[in-house]
């Protein structure tokens, strides 16, 4: 199968408009004859379900939590980008497009990114109309701040809870469609399989997490908006229930997985305190607007921060990247933190942390101004660490945060399985090898409010659908597979828990497929992961039964998928013998230790086709061309 | 560094945890001993460790809800020693750390208790009543694509900030658990207030107030008698003044509706 991204022809500024005109429409009276499944209720899922319901389709929406409002988009802190140019500081659709392609280290698709920048402004309008209380100036107009990788202030925010407010906006629209009976909501349902009939996605199989019942749902199209796979690494900023099962099972049914090794490591997270740790907490990138990152100049300097005089401090981001300073993109800031810690200049008990210091900002702006901007983040930091960041600098360290990789989709957000669309973090499309801050919220809502409602309609309008019910043998076969898997997990009755084995997997991944990756390390990972997978199936112990709420069983099932996906991440990382964005191959760096791309050989999307759990996947390449943003070595100096 | 707690030794705790198989089954307290509890652990990490031990020894792990574990998703919520989300002000259960406890403490752990929040299992409850209250009117009826320019309508910073204060509600249900009447007034009023404070919400303000309050009653939540326990338990410090605003909105709607 050759990958066709279906990028419309014509000038980049006109592609989306022309495409919208060329797409098939579905008559309003006919929309109600079609059923569309949306899995996930985060920014992408909730906005897509609500928008498709508003258009008149019958929507079935699924989530694993007790309410659609819990999806992990809610935890996004800092903001959402848009090219409004309200501050009059030189922003434009073109600049947002340019910054995002450059920030992604030239591994995203220009046409998708341009469309994202175009619709970014509609998102802000839509959210304000919903009653999202964005931060405002005294004159009553919207306020903006800066984020990494940009020299303009284009980030809209609602204190440090932007994701929460945007998600609750989408949830309110979704709630309205549920009330109107255009969306049927299924909470505490976990998608465990995709059902493909005659080459088209026609439904899903779920497990009711309360009763354990395996159920099938038939539809004319399936949309996955199930987020990223950061929890393969065990410790990440993801929610503890965020998982890769929906996308991985879809991958096994024919959806190619693109660029799995593009994993974002966020530079500013609260460091690990011990083995009991269940997750890592992000401190928003917005803090780098006012916080200064530093370590002592001398190795092993264990003095308290306030006893280290100014001239013995190394503000290494400001020193190395004077143009962007503390606001360099995430991949660069993370790597720089690793380098200073590797040199023995890390701080705190473990030496695996750097300072993020607000003393200067408090002196300049006053404590009250800092409280207003970041109060809730400072409180969160204090609750977790028992240290007061108004008095001592925060200690931060990079952590797994976001996955740019995901299921391959074309310009219409359709995967390699016709009728299966993938939205938000679950797809690979817009962020290349590194996502810029405040762009995840933008992409999730762009996909859900403004892209999928058109492209899904085009798919419905240009295909004929044989009637399919859940009695179809394909559903029955899938239900049996899912049921067998549950029974298999319960039957092992070994000695190790899912947490223990996931932690072991996380250590392998962090060590060999983390911030620095080498051929030797990746080969080691490719030996270790299958061994651990084998051990999992011999030694997993799952408590309880399949017929009740059983959180332990859920965890074990998700881990079984991580143990397969992890191998693909390592394989993709080994294949890509260049450094780009969040993917840093030790073999490919400049003399100064910056990432060195290899455009000649790797300017492509690596899309992997599943061939069997113990078989090597097949690599397909979608080559990337850059007509509008000239390929240059990324520089933030 | 001012790291007070990491020097503290690990603790031994006596846990009394509510166990209940499902909504229909009777529940009871079961006692567990938990050793080696680091003060740097979160409360839920302490329960994770207990569960690890229970799984390994052939026991039945305790079911409890949590997701983001950074205090924003609203999924977690336990009554700890009689207090919703435990002893620390403005703190969700997931953000409560064991440094708030002492060696040898007995800790009682229960689910939210309210007729409208039936127990699903152990410490997990069904809060879908909250979703239905929002479905009754907690939105502005604006389809995707209908919006005017975001800056076309200036909103005073004062009102916008008040709306944001109300909108911070995470829907955890602590207000209900803390209220002697099991009232959902703080939750409902937070959404009514947010939208009443913003021009976008004004067109539907009457229907919203009446429909959301009616749904709240229909779900079996109690009335508000101004105890104020909800505000004290709220991890996001949502002000009880929102309830007053909701009552005004309700009376205004009732008196002026055709």
Description:
The complex is a heterodimer of chains A (637) and B (258). Chain A has a 5-stranded parallel beta sheet with strand order 5-2-1-9-17. A 5-stranded antiparallel beta sheet of chain A has the order 11-15-14-12-13. A 4-stranded antiparallel beta sheet of chain A has the order 16-10-18-19. Chain A is α+β, with helices and mostly antiparallel strands. In chain A, helix 10 (359-365) packs antiparallel against helix 11 (367-385) and helix 15 packs antiparallel against helix 16. Chain A is built from 17 helices and 19 strands. In chain A, a hairpin with a 5-residue loop joins strand 7 (200-208) and strand 8 (214-218). Chain A has 3 domains: 25-259 and 403-461, 3-Layer(bba) Sandwich (FAD/NAD(P)-binding domain), CATH 3.50.50; 265-401, Alpha-Beta Complex (Flavocytochrome C3, Chain A, domain 1); 473-611, Methane Monooxygenase Hydroxylase, Chain G, domain 1 (Up-down Bundle), CATH 1.20.58. Chain A has helices at residues 15-22, 28-31, 43-55, 93-103, 110-130, 162-179, 245-252, 316-320, 330-342, 359-365, 367-385, 440-461, 473-492, 498-512, 519-539, 551-575, 599-602, and strands spanning 35-39, 58-62, 80-81, 155-156, 183-186, 189-197, 200-208, 214-218, 221-224, 257-258, 263-269, 292-296, 313-314, 354-357, 394-403, 406-407, 420-422, 604-609, 618-623. The N and C termini of chain B lie far apart (65 Å). Chain B is α+β, with helices and mostly antiparallel strands and 258 residues long. Chain B contains 8 helices and 7 strands. Chain B is 33% helix and 13% strand. Chain B folds into 2 domains: 11-120, Ubiquitin-like (UB roll); 128-256, Fumarate Reductase Iron-sulfur Protein, Chain B, domain 2, CATH 1.10.1060. In chain B, the strands form 2 sheets. Chain B has a 5-stranded mixed beta sheet with strand order 2-1-5-3-4. In chain B, strands 6-7 form a two-stranded antiparallel ribbon. Chains A and B meet through helix 3, helix 5, helix 6, helix 11 and helix 12 of A and helix 1, helix 2 and helix 3 of B.
């Amino acid at each position: 199968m050759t990958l066709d991204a279906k990028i419309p022809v014509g000038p980049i500024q006109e592609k989306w408009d022309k495409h919208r005109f060329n797409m098939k429409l579905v008559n309003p009276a006919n929309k109600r004859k079609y059923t569309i499944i949306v899995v996930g209720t985060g920014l992408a899922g909730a906005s897509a379900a609500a928008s498709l319901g508003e258009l008149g389709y019958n929507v079935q929406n699924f989530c694993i939590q007790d309410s659609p409002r819990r999806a992990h988009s809610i935890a996004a802190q800092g903001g959402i980008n848009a090219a409004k140019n309200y501050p009059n500081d030189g922003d434009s659709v073109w600049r947002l497009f340019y910054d995002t392609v450059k920030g992604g280290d030239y591994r995203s698709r220009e046409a998708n990114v341009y469309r994202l920048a175009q619709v970014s402004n509609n998102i802000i309008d839509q959210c304000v109309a919903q009653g999202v209380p964005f931060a405002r100036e005294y004159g009553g107009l919207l306020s903006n701040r800066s984020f990494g990788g940009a020299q303009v202030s284009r980030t809209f925010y609602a204190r440090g809870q932007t994701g929460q407010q945007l998600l609750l906006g989408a949830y309110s629209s979704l709630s309205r469609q549920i009330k109107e009976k255009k969306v049927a909501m299924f909470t505490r349902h976990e998608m465990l399989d995709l059902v493909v009939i005659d080459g088209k996605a026609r439904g899903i199989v779920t497990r009711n997490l309360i009763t354990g019942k395996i159920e099938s749902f038939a539809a004319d199209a399936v949309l996955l908006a199930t987020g990223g796979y950061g929890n393969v690494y065990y410790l990440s900023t993801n929610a503890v229930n965020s998982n890769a099962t929906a996308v991985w099972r879809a991958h096994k049914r024919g959806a190619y997985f693109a660029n799995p090794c593009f994993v974002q490591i966020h530079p500013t997270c609260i460091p690990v305190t011990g083995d009991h740790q269940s997750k890592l907490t992000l401190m928003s990138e917005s803090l780098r607007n006012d916080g200064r990152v530093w370590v002592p100049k001398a190795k092993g300097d264990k003095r308290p921060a306030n006893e280290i005089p100014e001239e013995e401090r190394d503000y290494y981001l400001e020193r190395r990247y004077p143009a962007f300073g503390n606001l360099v993109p995430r991949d660069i800031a993370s790597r720089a933190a690793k380098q200073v810690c590797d040199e023995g200049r890390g701080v705190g008990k473990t030496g695996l942390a750097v300072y993020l210091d607000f003393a200067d900002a408090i002196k300049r702006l006053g404590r009250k101004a800092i409280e207003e901007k970041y109060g809730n983040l400072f409180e969160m930091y204090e609750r977790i660490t028992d240290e007061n960041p108004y008095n001592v600098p925060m200690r931060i360290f990079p952590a797994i945060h976001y996955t740019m990789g995901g299921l391959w989709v074309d310009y219409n957000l359709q995967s390699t399985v016709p009728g299966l669309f993938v939205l938000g973090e679950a797809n690979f499309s817009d962020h290349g090898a590194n996502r810029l801050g405040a762009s995840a919220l933008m992409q999730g809502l762009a996909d859900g409010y403004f892209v999928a409602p058109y492209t899904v309609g085009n798919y419905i309008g240009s295909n004929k659908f044989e009637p399919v019910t859940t009695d179809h043998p394909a559903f029955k076969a899938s239900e049996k597979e899912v049921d067998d898997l549950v029974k298999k997990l319960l039957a092992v009755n070994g000695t190790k828990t899912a947490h223990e084995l996931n932690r072991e997997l996380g250590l392998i991944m962090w060590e060999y497929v983390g911030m620095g990756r080498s051929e030797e390390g990746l080969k080691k990972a490719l030996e270790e992961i299958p061994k651990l997978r084998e051990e999992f199936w011999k030694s997993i112990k799952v408590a309880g039964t399949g017929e009740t709420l059983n959180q332990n069983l859920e965890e074990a099932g998700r881990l079984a998928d991580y143990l397969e996906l992890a191998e693909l991440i390592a394989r993709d990382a080994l294949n890509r013998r260049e450094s780009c964005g969040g993917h840093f191959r030790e073999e490919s760096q400049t003399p100064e230790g910056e990432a060195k791309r290899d455009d000649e050989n790797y300017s492509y999307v690596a899309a992997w086709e599943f061939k069997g759990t113990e078989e090597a996947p097949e690599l397909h390449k979608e080559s990337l061309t850059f007509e509008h943003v000239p390929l240059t070595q990324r520089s933030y100096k | 560094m001012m790291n007070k707690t990491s020097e503290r030794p690990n603790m031994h705790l006596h846990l009394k945890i509510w166990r209940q198989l499902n909504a229909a089954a009777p529940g009871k307290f079961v006692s567990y001993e938990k050793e080696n509890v680091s003060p740097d652990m979160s409360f839920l990490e302490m329960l994770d460790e207990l569960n690890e031990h229970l799984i390994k020894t052939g026991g039945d792990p305790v079911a409890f809800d949590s997701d983001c574990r950074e205090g924003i998703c609203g999924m977690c919520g336990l009554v700890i020693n009689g207090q919703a989300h435990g002893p620390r002000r403005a703190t969700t259960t997931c953000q409560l750390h064991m440094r708030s406890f002492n060696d040898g403490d007995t800790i009682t752990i229960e689910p939210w208790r309210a007729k409208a929040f039936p127990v699903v299992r152990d410490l997990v409850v069904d809060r879908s009543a909250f979703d239905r209250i929002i479905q009754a009117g907690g939105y502005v009826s604006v389809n995707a694509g209908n919006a005017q320019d975001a800056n076309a309508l200036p909103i005073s910073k004062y009102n916008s900030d008040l709306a944001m204060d109300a909108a911070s509600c995470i829907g955890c249900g602590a207000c209900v658990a803390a209220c002697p009447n099991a009232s959902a007034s703080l939750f409902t009023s937070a959404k009514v207030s947010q939208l009443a404070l913003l021009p976008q919400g004004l067109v539907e303000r009457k229907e919203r107030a009446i429909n959301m309050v009616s749904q709240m009653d229909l779900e079996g939540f109690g009335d508000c008698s101004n105890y104020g326990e909800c505000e004290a338990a709220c991890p996001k410090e949502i002000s009880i003044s929102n309830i007053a605003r909701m009552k005004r909105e309700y009376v205004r709607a009732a008196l002026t509706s055709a």
